[in-house]
Write a sequence for this structure.
């Protein structure tokens, strides 16, 4: 194995670990808001590492550019999607877990517009 293949393997292994941790967060965390936090942070980073590792392993310029574009797209859209889903869950009346100390948004269906 060459050094590039070893680095690609390590990046893909690390990316898989991040995606696995996000899946465990979805299974173990108490409410939708915590689950959104886990997935919106770990999944784009994990998939980005997987794509960078795959781009190193394939070593084609077009694939590397596509992997970079996908990684940037995920990094830009994941927080926006998580915020929209969290706000929709809150507006639908999904309560936070019992350990939540403060909720600054009212549960009256008001969107703040």
């Amino acid at each position: 194995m060459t050094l590039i293949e070893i680095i690609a393997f390590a990046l893909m292994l690390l990316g898989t670990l991040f995606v696995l941790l996000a899946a465990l967060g979805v299974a173990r965390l108490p409410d939708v808001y915590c689950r959104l936090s886990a997935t919106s942070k770990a999944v784009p980073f994990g998939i980005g590492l997987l794509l960078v590792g795959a781009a190193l392993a394939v070593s084609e310029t077009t694939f590397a550019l596509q992997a970079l574009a996908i990684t940037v797209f995920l990094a830009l859209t994941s927080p926006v999607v998580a915020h929209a889903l969290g706000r929709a869950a809150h507006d639908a009346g999904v309560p936070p877990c019992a350990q939540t100390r403060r909720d600054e948004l009212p549960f009256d269906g008001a969107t703040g517009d």
Notes: The CA atoms of residues 33 and 58 lie 37 Å apart. The first helix runs from residue 3 to 28. The radius of gyration is 18 Å. The mean pLDDT is 88.
